[in-house]
Write a structure and sequence with these properties.
Elements lengths: L5 H11 L5 E5 L3 E7 L5 E8 L7 H4 L30 E4 L10 E9 L4 E9 L5 E10 L4 E10 L5 E13 L4 E7 L7 E6 L3 E6 L13 E6 L9 E8 L4 E7 L5 E7 L6 E3 L4 E3 L2 E7 L2 H17 L10 E3 L1 H4 L5 H14 L3 E4 L30 H12 L2 E6 L3 E2 L4 H5 L19 E2 L5 H17 L5 E4 L11 H5 L7 H19 L5 E3 L17 E3 L6 H14 L5 E6 L6 H8 L3 E5 L7 H23 L1 E6 L6 E7 L5 E8 L23 E7 L14 E3 H6 L12 E8 L2
Parallel strand pairs: 20-21, 20-29, 21-22, 22-25, 25-26, 26-27, 27-28, 28-29
Antiparallel strand pairs: 1-2, 2-3, 4-9, 5-6, 6-7, 7-8, 8-18, 8-19, 9-16, 9-17, 10-11, 10-13, 12-15, 13-14, 14-19, 15-16, 23-24, 30-31, 31-32, 32-35, 33-34, 33-35
Helix pairs in contact: 5-6, 8-10, 11-12
The protein binds (2R,3S,4R,5S)-2-(hydroxymethyl)piperidine-3,4,5-triol.
Length: 730
């Protein structure tokens, strides 16, 4: 029989006498309140609006139905398994002695004020029988009403502890009904929204793709309480998991019709072994809650992201000309240098060289070969990257470059030399995604190799101004030769890959803290708030059809601020250049065209827009975003940005459907976020050469008027996109 140590016995006695502990975790508007029950288990007794008298929280627990007798199982803040709980666990382990049960009881907590705005509460939970502890962390950003939460699991057993499930967050909500707004997608079809009323049972959002984890389902969602929240009213939680790998978010409607949320790394094929005294830190679950609709929740997230998460979120960005759609793999030095001139003529800050510049034995002339061999292709670029950087500088633009350092084509020298670096099942046929395979980032040698690619480029070309980091394949046959060699379980690969990726990015940022980097993944197959610690922006989608983009950018915009979203004007669709440009302008603008192919008017138009963008970019990048007209419910979309001082604003209006009569578009659109007492002038910008505006320029409106009566941008099938600049009249 197992001996129970004296300390554990004493703890048991202490628990009998334990008093009720209430822990409010608050932001300026909201509270998550936890309370111990008679058995010293910690449950959630309130989630939502905070009370002005925090002493009143103590009483909530007494009236809770789900907190009595043996029903106290549902509202646990970190649900263990194999003991008293029979619902979806947050925590499941296999102890050294083979036992599968777990229990977590409250031990202590503390709150540390990091600064005026940020506080961190940590709560220590322990299994009274086994020496395993879990510390739950809650970091609150008061002004932004954002809460970041994660857990640290510590093994104090003498042998290995196997983590079978190790969630980041376990929350509990009480409401009449719950409505989930979530997404599905694929290449060129990112962020397709779905709305569903949650019913009894479990609804799961998850990924098992390894790399490019959010290709089919992103870890972002909005959860409405009681009824569907709208832009400006309703109770809604906007949540996301900051993890660039497999994730699982469960929404379990329990037998009280309340909702349990469990979010974290996907336990699928991911048992993780902790040796004695080792600990495991889970990724962060990030959420914000609003009782004033999706717009406010989204604004909270933007404010938080720019200030605390996105790399250089409060800084500037470079406009650029990319050659991907302009040349694909077919280019040489002459072609590229002529594009530099186009970039300058257009008026962008930088030229970005995309895929196809490397590999010699198996030249990268298509997506079938060369990936992994990061030496300049001598035929295409006889004078190397250094020459291109110099030529770009001479032409008056900066130079950036594309890499896909995590991947390898089987047709490459790297594959021939380092088969053991490749993720593949040694005894099974390889399965490819875009003719390539991921490298094994669990392996420190591979981490060095990946870091080396970037380090080498920067060392040889210190003026390199930008990196586009791509990742085009998912992970089939998840097997690591490194884990095999080091006798570690294969089930750690999915997690160790992501940890390895972060290690590399950490090293890159330690040495090159400032260089802007675009997170790209065959379009938008990878974007999350952990990766965005290292990246300044992300590629929304390869689909640059502006009509599709209106919808996609609308959905992405709930979670990520405009400064992070790369929108390029390309020739993907034959919609006129004005509509394409106006749509790209509501984020971080770029081009992917051959400038010399623009006619005179198109060029003049684009040059003027870039000047307008220079004038408005601060407002778009750092201002508040308001969604005015939802294209999913109307025949058009309207989006507005307002700067801090409320003396500049810009309104983007896009016709999205013209099959029916356009009468509904003749009505005014009420602006938001202006100062009611300020006077404003409105002016249509981005006019196509030879056209004139129907908007009268000399009317002076009060902010109150524009927000109460509204303003009609006159979108019609002859004016399919209309951009309005609004400035204070002083
Ligand atoms: C996928 C990206 O999304 C594209 O923008 C481009 O960089 C290609 N990869 C290059 O192979």
């Amino acid at each position: 029989m197992r001996k129970i140590p004296l300390l554990v016995l004493l703890m048991g006695i202490f628990e009998l006498k334990a008093q009720t502990i209430t822990i409010p975790i608050e932001t300026s508007q909201n509270a998550l309140v936890l309370q111990t029950d008679k058995d010293n288990r910690l449950g959630i007794i309130h989630f939502g609006k905070k009370l002005s008298q925090s002493s009143e929280y103590v009483t909530i627990g007494q009236s809770l139905k789900y907190n009595d007798n043996n029903a106290g199982i549902y509202n646990s803040i970190y649900t263990p398994s194999g003991s008293w709980s029979l619902v979806e666990p947050a925590f499941e382990v296999l102890h050294t002695d083979g036992n599968t049960s777990s229990e977590l009881k409250y031990v202590s907590h503390q709150t540390q004020k990091i600064d005026e705005n940020v506080s961190q509460t940590s709560i220590l939970l322990k299994d009274p029988i086994y020496p395993v502890e879990v510390t739950l962390f809650f970091k609150t950003y008061a002004k932004e009403n954002v809460m970041e939460q994660w857990s640290v699991i510590k093994n104090q057993e003498k042998g290995n502890l196997i983590l079978k499930k190790y969630a980041s967050a376990n929350l509990y909500f009480v409401a009449k009904d719950f409505y989930l707004h979530h997404y599905h997608g694929g290449w060129a079809k990112e962020m397709k929204p779905e709305d569903t009323k949650l019913t009894a049972g479990i609804k799961t959002l998850d990924s098992k793709l390894g790399t490019r984890a959010n290709l089919f389902q992103p870890p972002t969602f909005m959860l409405s309480f009681d009824r569907q929240a709208n832009e400006d009213d309703g109770k809604v939680l906007l949540g996301t998991l900051a993890w660039s790998g497999n994730f699982k978010i469960d929404f379990e409607k329990d037998s009280y019709q309340n909702l349990r949320l469990i979010a974290g790394i996907n336990p699928f094929a991911s048992e993780y072994t902790l040796a004695a005294n080792e600990e495991f830190k889970t990724p962060s679950f990030i959420q914000t809650y609003s009782e004033n609709g999706k717009g406010e929740a989204s604004k909270n997230m933007h404010n938080w992201a720019r200030k605390y998460r996105l790399l250089d979120g409060e800084g500037s960005r470079l406009t650029l000309l990319n050659n991907w759609e302009a040349t694909y793999f077919d280019f040489d030095e002459t072609k590229l240098t002529s594009l530099f001139k186009g970039a300058k003529e257009l008026g962008v800050d930088m030229f970005l060289l995309d895929d196809g510049w490397f590999a010699n034995k198996y030249p990268r002339n298509g997506d079938v070969a060369g990936l992994g061999d990061w030496q300049e292709n001598k035929k295409k670029l006889p004078n190397g990257i250094g020459y291109l950087v110099k030529e770009a500088t001479k032409a008056g633009v900066k130079f950036g470059i594309w890499v896909e350092p995590e991947m390898v084509n089987p047709k490459s020298e790297l594959y021939e030399k380092h088969l053991d670096w490749v993720i593949r099942e040694p005894n099974r046929p390889e399965t490819y995604f875009r003719n390539q395979l991921p490298l094994d980032l669990a392996n420190p040698e591979v981490q060095d190799f990946v870091f080396g690619i970037l380090d080498d480029l920067f060392t040889k070309n210190p003026e390199l101004a930008f990196i586009k980091w791509d990742c085009n394949a998912v992970t089939y046959n998840a097997h690591s030769m490194y884990l095999e060699r080091t006798k570690k379980p294969q089930t750690q690969l999915y997690v160790d890959y992501v940890k390895g990726l972060y290690k590399v990015l950490e090293r890159i940022r330690a040495k090159y803290p400032k260089v802007p980097m675009m997170l790209c993944s065959g379009g938008g197959g990878r974007v999350d708030y952990e990766a965005l610690k290292y990246f300044t922006e992300f590629w929304v989608s390869d689909n640059t059809d502006p009509l599709e983009r209106v919808f996609m950018q609308w959905e992405y915009s709930y979670y990520y601020p405009a400064i992070a979203q790369c929108n390029h004007i390309t020739d993907w669709s034959n919609v006129g250049i004005k509509y394409r440009t106006d749509v790209a302008m509501m984020g971080k603008m770029g081009y992917d065209i051959v400038v010399s192919k623009l006619d005179e008017k198109e060029l003049l138009f684009s040059q003027n827009v870039l000047k307008n963008y220079k004038n408005l970019k601060e407002t778009i990048w750092h201002g508040d975003m308001y969604r005015l007209v939802n294209p999913f419910e109307n025949q058009m979309a309207s989006v507005q940005f307002v700067n801090d001082k409320k003396d500049q604003s810009v309104m983007f209006n896009y016709l999205t459907e013209n099959r029916y009569d356009l009468n509904s578009l003749l009505s005014n659109i009420k602006l938001k976020g202006l100062d009611a007492n300020k006077k404003y002038k409105v002016k249509e910008i981005n006019l196509y050469p030879g056209t004139s505006s129907t908007i009268k320029e000399n009317i002076i409106y009060s902010g109150e008027y524009l927000m109460t009566i509204g303003f009609n941008p006159s979108v019609s099938n002859r004016r399919t996109s209309v951009v309005i600049e609004i400035n204070e009249v002083k």
